[in-house]
Write a structure and sequence with these properties.
Layout: H1 2-13, H2 44-54, H3 67-76, H4 78-92, H5 96-127, E1 134-139, E2 142-147, E3 156-160, E4 168-180, H6 182-185, E5 191-192, E6 214-215, E7 220-232, H7 238-245, H8 255-286, H9 289-303, H10 307-324, E8 328-330, H11 333-339, E9 344-347, E10 359-364, E11 370-371, H12 386-395, H13 403-415, H14 418-425, E12 429-433, E13 441-447, E14 452-459, H15 461-468, H16 472-487, E15 491-501, E16 515-523, H17 530-539, E17 543-547, H18 552-562, E18 569-571, H19 572-577, H20 580-587, E19 592-594, H21 598-610, E20 615-619, H22 625-630, E21 633-637, H23 643-648, E22 651-653, H24 658-699, H25 707-725, H26 749-775, H27 780-802, H28 809-814, H29 818-836, H30 838-844, H31 851-880
Parallel strand pairs: 9-17, 9-20, 17-19, 18-19, 20-21, 21-22
Antiparallel strand pairs: 1-2, 1-3, 3-7, 4-5, 4-6, 4-7, 8-22, 10-11, 10-16, 12-13, 13-14, 14-15, 15-16
Domain Cation-transporting P-type ATPase N-terminal: 26-95
Pfam family, one: Cation_ATPase_C
Protein name: ATPase, P-type (Transporting), HAD superfamily, subfamily IC
Length: 883
């Protein structure tokens, strides 16, 4: 019963060190080929023949996005083609001012997009390995160092600590071999390898699991050395199989682009119809058909919705740049719009929620004393705990690759006295005993310049207790402590110490007289920002689901520390027994998935999507690539992620931090909010512009607005929408709202109603100013100036109203916006010049305005602003609600 209770802790702990204790061994890590070579390997003729048959050991190159390809994609975009085409048409009609404005903004949008996407691809290129890993092989009986791409089937690989395995292979000789297969399994703890047993049945050739003879391309040898025969290269390796499965998955298409195309078509059709109507009315009522055509062109210009594609393109490009400032690269524009509608965030544990480095978090003495080193402010440990850490350091590899050995070194450097550290660094172990299946412990002996040698051991608690020959009562007490540490998600190691006198080393670790020093608890600590980020997700209506290859106890412990509901944890074995209906039902309640295989991650993502969720998925390994591509938002790790994962993703985290994902979601919601503000503003502002162009025509008054006036107004509208609204800070409730429905149109009924209300009110007040001027019999030039000034100032009022859906005018004014201040300053200067500079006054056909006239225009704009501010709280819920 004791063994069953402690078995999970022992399984986790035994990965501390692996090997074979059949014979004692001396530490020989400085020798790159410690194993005797009796194998000749392939000859050159065989190598050439196999390369001709199988090709090189490399994956098919992904379809890289070169700068020229990005340029071609941008110019193939229909919305930009509409902008350029519209500019060319205006130029053909002789309206060079409007043509230049249109083409300039189209060019700016193109440049911003190309620069941002090229920069993103360049950073991704820098993240890729410039050369394939080198490989040490045996050919013609000699050791040869070759490029990894030149490895062929049948090659004999010489593997040592620190080597990256270049191809899938089977071990034919092994000495304490332990590999990190996290790129394939997602599990950060290394696994033990044994040489092939020709008398045993073949084991499944799958990554993960102890005591298997297979090593896999991309894995890292963290302990030991061995010889392995290559059996699969390139696309036939486990990495290659995962890469091939990506071609069967399709990425999500951007919805906003399709919606914007429809809006452009609708507004363009309306503008064309009104323009034709204007030509007919003008020609019929006034008889001047040439003037009628010019009037129709002016009205068409006033109603052409060229701002829609400009705004969407600039917002997506600038949004990608702004998100990159949060250490997040956006590879696909669709991801930006999807960020605001994400309902489920599936995240890995290791390296995303945690720091991806093993740390000693707890020391326990045989008498029950407990110490958490992270809570000790002093530079050294309390005296009773020093022997435990010193022995743990002695038992660790002097030049560690193993994460747990690294943890012992890290704590020792910060908490042990320099005298001991200097003495330790000056020596090397003189004898070492590896781990074997029936004794999950390792020992190292050190010559301390005395008559006796010090022997330090660490390993699975059960094995260390057996070496110390503890009585049953002591074992039972320690078992309770081990279980408590395991429930807290710790990986538990036992540590012991012995002395040995003589030169005839025993054959087994059992022959030493070990004294039990205590237990060491290790963990991959949670990132400091994660609990707050998870809380932000919860308040934003985003469910966080943790999917990991780690054990259930560790996964549940980390999930609880992060603030997740870990009451329901689903293991990979349980998931394998579920059909699709059962999985869909379980997914509604379970937030933690442990011991999950790569294909199961993909199944989880597909099940969540089938249930109507908008899924964001994080991943770093090759095994994550299919699920990254299948998710609505694939988020790859830029620091520790693989090329395959980054290529399959739509977003890349440069700092591998979960909090960065939440910052990106916050920015995605902000971008979408500001995009809706800009679109609502465009709709609102076109109504008074088109009204002033059409109103005098219908009533038989002199035409107020010509192409130059429309061009001037475009200089206000486009910069404001593309720059000022894009730069607006987030709404106060941006992370307190539920995710938006991805099917929700950009122009909801409420937003259209809000835009129409603003536009009609602005037109009514500007029309009122025009009527007052007409009533006072103002000359035509003065009347034009009066109406135009009232229109421009009303547009400024609409800008201030649309800066925020949730904040009041006073709160919005207190929120700084340097871009908006610059735009408004330009507007004021331009208006002043149009009145005071004779050349400009002549160009605009303006007459002089008196102070009372200017006061009237300011009053009209203030009335627009204050009236809409009073109405806005009543409309707020409708704007945020679904259509």
């Amino acid at each position: 019963m004791y063994f069953l209770n402690c078995f999970p802790a022992f399984c986790r702990a035994r990965r501390a060190c692996v090997g074979d204790e059949s014979v004692p061994r001396t530490d020989m890590r400085s020798d790159p080929s410690p194993l005797p070579v009796t194998i000749r390997g392939l000859d050159e003729a065989e190598v050439r023949a196999r390369q001709a048959t199988d090709g090189f050991n490399e994956l098919p190159q992904p379809d890289r996005r070169t700068p020229w390809r990005i340029v071609r994609e941008v110019f193939e975009e229909p919305m930009l083609a509409l902008l350029i085409g519209g500019g060319v048409i205006y130029m053909a009609l002789g309206d060079f001012k409007e043509a230049v404005i249109l083409l300039v903004f189209a060019s700016l949008s193109i440049v911003i997009t190309i620069v941002q996407e090229t920069r993103t691809e360049r950073v991704l290129e820098a993240l890729r390995d410039l050369t394939s890993p080198r490989a040490l092989v045996i050919r013609d009986g000699e050791h040869r160092r070759i490029a990894g791409r030149e490895v062929v089937r049948g090659d004999i690989l010489v593997l040592a600590e620190g080597d990256r395995v270049p191809a899938d292979a089977i071990l034919i000789e092994a000495q304490d071999v332990q590999t990190d297969e996290s790129l394939l399994t997602g599990e950060s703890v290394p696994v033990r390898k044994l040489p092939r047993d020709v008398s045993a049945p073949d084991a499944p050739q799958r990554p993960g699991g102890d005591d298997l003879p297979y090593v896999f391309s991309g894995s890292l040898v963290v302990r030991g050395s061995g010889l392995a025969e290559v059996h699969a290269i390139g696309p036939h390796s486990e990495i290659g199989k995962i890469g091939q499965s990506l071609g069967e998955l399709k990425t999500e298409a951007p919805r906003l682009q399709a919606q914007t195309r429809k809006l452009v078509l609708v507004f363009g059709s309306i503008g064309a119809a009104v323009s034709v109507l204007a030509v007919v009315l003008y020609g019929t009522l006034r008889g001047g058909w040439l003037d009628a055509v010019l009037a129709g062109i002016t009205i068409g210009m006033s109603m052409l919705p060229e701002e829609f594609p400009v705004v969407l393109t600039v917002f997506m490009a600038m949004g990608a740049w702004r998100i990159s400032q949060a250490r997040v690269l956006t590879r696909r524009a669709a991801a930006i719009e999807a960020l605001g509608s994400a309902t489920v965030l599936c995240t890995d544990k290791t390296g995303t929620l945690t720091q991806n480095k093993m740390t000693i978090v707890e020391l326990r003495l045989p008498d029950g004393g407990v110490l958490r080193p992270g809570e000790v402010a002093a530079a050294s440990l309390p005296a009773p705990y020093e022997p435990l850490l010193q022995a743990g350091l002695r038992a660790a590899a002097p030049d560690p690759f193993d994460p747990m050995d690294i943890a012992f070194h890290a704590l020792a450097q910060s908490k042990l006295h320099q005298t001991f550290l200097q003495s330790h660094a000056a020596r090397k172990p003189v004898q070492a005993y590896g781990l074997r299946p029936d004794l999950l412990a390792m020992s190292q002996a050190w010559d301390l310049e005395a008559a006796a040698f010090e022997v330090a051991a660490k390993g699975a608690p059960e094995a260390i207790m057996a070496l110390c020959h503890l009585d049953e009562e002591t074992r039972a007490t320690l078992a309770q402590q081990i279980d408590a540490m395991a429930r807290a998600g710790l990986r538990v190691l036992g540590v012991a110490r012995a002395e040995f006198v003589g030169s005839d080393w025993p054959d087994s670790q059992h022959d030493f007289d070990f004294a039990f020093l205590g237990l060491v608890g290790l963990a991959d600590p949670l990132r400091d920002q994660v609990p707050a980020a998870v809380a932000d997700c919860r308040s934003a209506g985003i469910r966080v689901v943790m999917i990991t290859g780690d054990y259930s106890t560790t996964a549940v412990a980390i999930a609880r520390q992060a603030g997740l509901d870990a009451a329901d944890c689903v293991s990979g074995d349980e998931l394998a027994r579920m059909d699709d209906a059962q999985l869909a039902q379980r997914l509604r309640s379970a937030n933690v998935f442990a011991r999950i295989m790569p294909e199961q991650k993909l199944r989880i993502v597909k099940a969540l999507k089938a249930d109507g969720e908008v899924v964001a998925m994080t991943g770093d390994g090759v095994n994550d690539a299919p699920s990254l591509k299948a998710a609505h938002i694939g988020i790859a790790m830029g620091g520790r992620g693989t090329d395959v994962a980054r290529e399959a993703s739509s977003i890349v985290l440069l700092d591998d931090d979960f909090a960065s994902i939440v910052r990106a979601i916050r920015l995605g919601r902000r971008i979408y909010d500001n995009l809706r503000k800009a679109m609502g503003f465009i709709l609102a502002v076109h109504i008074p512009i088109a009204g002033l162009a059409l109103f005098p025509l219908v009533l038989g008054y002199p035409i107020l607005l010509g192409p130059i006036h429309i061009a001037f107004l475009e200089m206000i509208i486009d910069p404001v929408c593309s720059l000022a609204f894009e730069a607006e800070s987030e709404e106060q409730d941006v992370m307190r709202r539920p995710p938006r429905d991805p099917e929700q149109p950009l122009f909801s009924v409420a937003l259209i109603g809000w835009g129409l209300l603003q536009g009609v009110l602005a037109f009514a007040l500007v029309g009122g100013v025009y009527a007052i001027g007409k009533y006072e019999a103002m000359p035509e030039n003065e009347l034009r100036a009066l109406a135009f000034f009232a229109l421009v100032l009303s547009i400024v009022g609409l800008i201030l109203v649309n800066r925020s859906f949730s904040a009041s005018l006073w709160a919005a004014l207190r929120r700084p916006s340097p871009v908006l201040l610059i735009v408004l300053a330009v507007v004021v200067i331009a208006l002043a010049l149009s009145l005071l500079w004779p050349a400009a006054r002549e160009l605009f056909k303006f007459g002089p305005l008196h102070p009372d006239d200017l006061a009237l225009t300011v009053g009209a704009a203030a009335a627009v602003l204050l009236t809409l501010e009073a109405i806005k709280p009543l409309w707020r819920k409708r704007i945020h609600a679904a259509p």
